Amino acid sequence: MKIYVKSKDAPTIRINLPTGLLLNRFTAKAGLKCLEKYCSREGWYAENSITEAQAYMLFSEIQRFKKKYPDWYLVDVETADGEIIKIKP
């Protein structure tokens, strides 16, 4: 996974991490625990919650899609101020 952030005021940030390190069963479970802890106060998470298996299935589909379309970006944002944020799995 490649994370690229460019801003006028700050230095450019580039982070390269193995996709398998970020999109696995452990991070699916940890991410759901964080959502449960911090978003349950808002009330919307209880109604729209997903299971650990569904989160892992989403991660698996992202990895499969990455193999099929190697130039695909998960996030590709350019603001009016000239800031750029790109995340490529």
Features:
89 residues; alpha+beta; four-stranded antiparallel sheet; 4 helices; 4 strands
Count the DSSP helices: 4
Q: In order across it, which strands form the biggest sheet? A: 2-1-4-3
By secondary-structure content and strand pairing, the structural class works out as alpha+beta
The quaternary structure here is single chain
Number of domains: 1
Helix content: 40-55%
The SSE string, one letter per element, is EEHHHHEE
Main beta-sheet annotation: 4 strands, antiparallel
Layout of strands and helices, then pairs:
Blueprint: E1 2-6, E2 13-16, H1 19-22, H2 25-39, H3 44-47, H4 52-68, E3 75-78, E4 84-88
Antiparallel strand pairs: 1-2, 1-4, 3-4
Helix pairs in contact: 2-4
Structure description:
The protein has 89 residues and is an alpha+beta fold. The protein has one domain. It has 4 helices and 4 strands; from the N terminus they run ββααααββ. It has helices at residues 19-22, 25-39, 44-47, 52-68; strands at 2-6, 13-16, 75-78, 84-88. Strands 2-1-4-3 form a 4-stranded antiparallel sheet, with no helix packed on it. A hairpin with a 5-residue loop joins strand 3 and strand 4 (84-88). The mean pLDDT is 87.
Summarize this, please?
The chain is built from four helices and four strands, in the order ββααααββ. It is of the alpha+beta class and 89 residues long.
